[in-house]
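> agent: user asked for a holo structure of the chain below bound to coenzyme A. Plan: (1) validate sequence alphabet, (2) canonicalize SMILES, (3) run complex prediction with ligand conditioning, (4) return tokens. Step 1... ok. Step 2... ok. Step 3 dispatched.
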Amino acid sequence: MISMMNAFPTLRTERLIFRQFQAFDADTVQRLAGLKEVAAGTLLPHPYDLEAATQWIAQQQESFAAGNAITFAIVLAEEEQLIGSIGMEIAREHELARLSYWLGTAYWNRGYCTEAVQAVLDYGFTRLSLHRIYAPHFHNNPASGRVLRKVGMTCEGRMREHYIRFGQFVDVEIYGILREEFLNDSVL
Ligand SMILES: CC(C)(COP(=O)(O)OP(=O)(O)OC[C@H]1O[C@@H](n2cnc3c(N)ncnc32)[C@H](O)[C@@H]1OP(=O)(O)O)[C@@H](O)C(=O)NCCC(=O)NCCS
């Protein structure tokens, strides 16, 4: 049985802090997630204005309160700089979560997303007792697939021409991991 805690948790890794998004983050969210390079890997609205970012933050807070999702602001521990987002949409009845994430372009290719996914998988399996976590990514976004393989997730298949993004049909790859696999890997 999954129970969300009343207080929003703060997670820490070697280089990162994960905390709840706050209204004051809206301008940074808009600036980072508003770039087309970031939007291209996601289903974020584009263009993305400050009002959309403000509404999105409020929606994350409501979803957490309702127990349907948890979305962390990814913050550089040393600089206290917000660099991205990582979250899980939770289907409690299935002990299942869907993972999604983005980082500002200036922070790509330094292993931050891998560090973040590892931390959130750990939170999902050990603190929320989830059974399965999965993540879809667009086929034309190999960096995301690489992250998911690096943390030990399995490519379970491809949904062909599943979404329309920027006017083109895109294939979607599905990666997944079960709690037992994650916990067994973690003790090795
Ligand atoms: C996907 C994303 C989150 C990755 O974040 P990141 O912090 O750069 O990821 P990491 O540094 O942990 O790992 C990236 C890996 O992909 C690799 N990579 C980067 N570009 C690549 C490419 N074009 N082809 C293949 N591999 C690539 C990197 O080399 C690295 O692998 P390595 O450690 O083996 O060298 C980031 O690119 C992003 O925010 N993209 C836009 C939003 C998005 O696509 N979100 C994901 C939705 S599913």
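> agent: step 4 complete. Summary for user: Strands lie at 11-12, 16-20, 69-76, 81-91, 96-103, 132-138, 154-165, 168-178. The mean pLDDT is 96.
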